[in-house]
Amino acid sequence: MGSWGVKALESDNGLDLISLLKTDYLPKHKKLTLGGLIGFLKEEGFLGETVSEIDFLYDNTAIALAELYSEWRETGKLNYDDEDSNIWSAITNFSASATARKDLLRRLRSIKNQVPDEDGEREIVELWKESNNWESWDMHLDSLIELLQQE
Fold this sequence. Notes:
single chain; 151 residues; mainly alpha; 2 strands; 55% helix
């Protein structure tokens, strides 16, 4: 699965997402919107056009977006800068419209409810169930859903 923690951003796919945003999105956007990120990630093939398009990468991306938004809400910053770049610290705002929050919430609930893909499974859920960290991952997903529901 290429993961070293229960967060989607603590995975190889999460690092790919951070890299894509850093190189192709953040140089043009100092104020983030959840809707803008969702649209960009659909264009880049990191998210399906609809909730019914189920794929491991799409699921991981949806969770990672919720993690980024959650981090901003909790701390007012996103801490992914490295010695080569301070692009993340240049972000001045991260807002989310009701429509964008609903879209992301539907995606997370679909994962939580284990809605199967065309092969009858939800790969991300199956992989976490087989790990030693299933309960921690499931609680993390619950906390992200709760955040979006409260808004």
